[in-house]
Sequence to fold (385 residues):
Amino acid sequence: MRDAMRQRTLEFQRRLKDDGIDVAIITDEDSIAWFAGYWGYLGVEFGRPTMLVVPVEGAPCVITPLMESAMAGAMTWVEDVRPWQDARGPDHWDEVLARLVKPTPKLNVGIEQFKMPALVAGFVEDTYGTAHLKDISRHISQMRMIKSPLEIDIMRKAGQIAIAMLDGGRTKLGEGVAEYELALAVIDAGTRKAAGFLTDAGLEAFVSPMVHNLQVLQSGEHTAMVHRRPNVRTLSKGDPVYFCFCGIVNFKQYKLGFDREYFIGSVTDEQARIYEVCIAAQEAALAAVRPGVIAEDVHHAASEVYRSAGFAPGYRTGRAIGISNLESPELKEGDQTVLQEGMTFAVDGGITVPGQYGARVGDSILVTKDGFEVFTPYPKDLTVV
Fold:
């Protein structure tokens, strides 16, 4: 994996040179993990940034807080790890960065414009001048679009973990069960599955199997509240229950999308109809997936199903996934990206009836030479528990 990261960095440096950029300052945690193999658990939200500095020629450097520097040195292939002190002074992060990247009148600096936090962006603008800042987001985005065999293997395992999570939650479904009990079962099952893929050696020693982040889970009329989190509400007969694993399926920093919905004891005819439309829309989108297809045309395939059933199309039908929850391209109106073998997506079907009911289904896929492979193969037909 570290050899792959070195090669990515070399390719990135080539792109910097072609674009006339002298040095890149990367602050996005996902990008740092992708290039350098280091991720922390405390970040810039605490005013404690980690940066990867990549010169157009020569070796990169990781700048990270002193408390995390030993871990960074053990995780990354980058040999130059420079710690900074939290106390203001000559060893604070801004001083360390300025010594490493010395301001000169003609220095062109690359940044991920919309991902660099204000804390760092303000200093970079003042120090190097806005006229000499160039957005490198497209280079990184394009490089990350096509997943390598190593990345695909990780995402396949992430799919197995997601399925284990759902199996854990399903075993707890029933009248009188609290939503948070479902979430606890999900966490337990997913953590145990992830642990089975890991060793206590090399970079894996820094990979936690623990499932974390708040799950998206709703029941009853709250299924109309997209992205609500589980609470102490107990399930009753007739309740739909929606499991979403976006944001908590995270194996070796790779994320998937995965959604399923169930019904406790009974389902109304209208709920069943809406749910079946969601499945049909997702299936129409999946049927359109193959190399050479325009991203927005996959969205159009799903939109036609919604319109035919009397529903308005959603904002998008899918999003590229990988080391970030949202990558490029997106399966939505206006995205003209041509699908290629090796791209990975979360593909969804969803309808919300405000205040009443929400139906959703989602899977993660890999675009193959003939169509697609599903990372999350799991039944999605209407199921009454």
Summary: The chain has two domains: 2-144, 146-374.
